Amino acid sequence: MGKTFKWGILGTGKIANKFALGLATLPRAELFAVGSRSQEKAESFARTHGAKHAFGSYEQVAAHPEVDVVYVATPHPFHLPGASLCLKQGKAVLCEKPLTVNLQQAEQLVGLAREQQLFLMEAMWTRFIPAIVELRKWIQAGRLGKIVKLQADFSFKAPFDPQKRTYNPELAGGALLDIGIYPIAFAYMIFGREPVHVSSFAQLAPTGVDQQAAYLFGYEGGEIASLQAAFTADFQKSAFVIGTSGMVELPLFWRAQQLIVHLPEQKPQVFDFPYPSTGLQFQAEEVMNCLDAGMLESDVMPLDESLRIMAMMDRLRKEWGLRYPFEQ
Ligand SMILES: NC(=O)c1ccc[n+]([C@@H]2O[C@H](COP(=O)([O-])OP(=O)(O)OC[C@H]3O[C@@H](n4cnc5c(N)ncnc54)[C@H](OP(=O)(O)O)[C@@H]3O)[C@@H](O)[C@H]2O)c1
């Protein structure tokens, strides 16, 4: 076991709570400090999760000399300021997805981390869960033949509320940055390169952000990724990785605990990969392993790939004429 790391968290919302639960499963991770815009919320969060310090500002977490690494769990537009604050105080950062709201901001953040020679990773936690680690091994070993198609859909019904971060353009709302990023990042992981063809269609909500969309990527070898994300209706939320020798189905692919292998003329085989707690701990383990090894970024979720994914999301938004108010 490597050294123990003292973690700070910015924000006390939904995902911060899930992350804290996951972190509690890691013996060498200590939840040291939580920062909130409200002292009261910080204290309540610290009581629930056993954090040593509760601060009524994000600045105090970033400035604490004992904090090694900070998890940024604020809404999208606050990723850049929150993560920058921590990097400027010499902290390693695990920043929620999307890394920022657009490529310009992402380049700024990555530039800062590189300039400061500090660790930064986008919290694309799917890549670190056991089922996905195994899937990548199967693909590398050629178990499915050549991967020719990918289908992935992340859709659920989010009731329309112009104030909430899902639909609020001021909070960079829309399905793309919130959940579309999962099928897109999955395609980048599976095919490992840029598509040469991109087409898409989006239906915009009354607030102007995308409420549902489909994105079609075509690759130089003819491979196809057919991806969707929506707030309009619940759907099966599965991915299908399709190779010339077989197909893997991933129910709830972004948090998969099962791989279902379909081979020609055989009954489907189900492989279970259960994990304890919320599953958000695996990315935290990756961060600590990288820090132990003196690495400034993860080679499973490298910063250049986060930048490429962000560039793709900018490109899709451009096709839909979707600019956030703070981008005007
Ligand atoms: N990896 C995943 O599975 C996953 C899942 C959900 C969300 N996320 C990402 O995590 C981020 C947060 O999502 P969430 O669902 O946890 O959101 P949330 O429940 O709304 O929580 C966000 C927290 O950020 C803080 N905050 C700072 N400025 C804010 C503002 N102007 N408005 C609202 N909250 C503000 C608040 O904490 P304080 O009041 O304590 O400061 C709030 O509790 C998003 O970027 C999202 O994409 C990731």
Write up what this structure looks like:
- This protein has 328 residues and is of the alpha/beta class.
- It folds into two domains: 5-126, Rossmann fold (3-Layer(aba) Sandwich); 130-274 and 309-327, Dihydrodipicolinate Reductase, domain 2 (2-Layer Sandwich).
- Helix content is 33%, strand content 24%.
- It is built from nine helices and 14 strands.
- The protein has helices spanning 14-23, 39-49, 58-63, 79-88, 103-116, 130-140, 175-191, 281-292, 303-320, and strands spanning 5-10, 29-35, 53-55, 69-72, 92-95, 120-122, 147-155, 197-204, 210-218, 224-230, 239-243, 247-250, 258-262, 269-272.
- The chain has an eight-stranded mixed beta sheet, covered by helices on one side. A six-stranded parallel beta sheet has the order 3-2-1-4-5-6, sandwiched between helices.
- A hairpin with a 3-residue loop joins strand 11 (239-243) and strand 12 (247-250).
- Helix 4 runs parallel beside helix 5 and helix 5 packs antiparallel against helix 9.
- The structure holds NADP nicotinamide-adenine-dinucleotide phosphate (NAP).
- NADP nicotinamide-adenine-dinucleotide phosphate binds next to helix 1.
- Residues 11-16, 36-38, 41, 73-76, 78, 96-97, 123, 125, 165, 178 line the site of NADP nicotinamide-adenine-dinucleotide phosphate.
